[in-house]
Amino acid sequence: MSKTPNRFRPTDALSVAEAVFKPAPQRAAAPVVAEKRVGVPISKEQVSLKLDSDLIAHFQEDGPGWQDRINDALRRAAGL
Questions:
Q1: 15, 23, 31, 50: which has the highest count of C-beta atoms within 10 A?
Q2: Would you list the domain boundaries of the chain?
């Protein structure tokens, strides 16, 4: 009885070499860079602040960047 050739695994050297050296995946698109805002200080200071959990949950609903959104809301409230 003869074995049937394996259709999924190449047996000749050229096919094996081509399978090992697959083309590299294409690079991802350039990351989106946020626009710099005028009047916003460049340096930030780390502080410890206690906020209500429902307030934090509200800002975290939209995902990453929630601390910046809280900062923007505080700036609007302070009139800055």
A1: 15
A2: 47-80
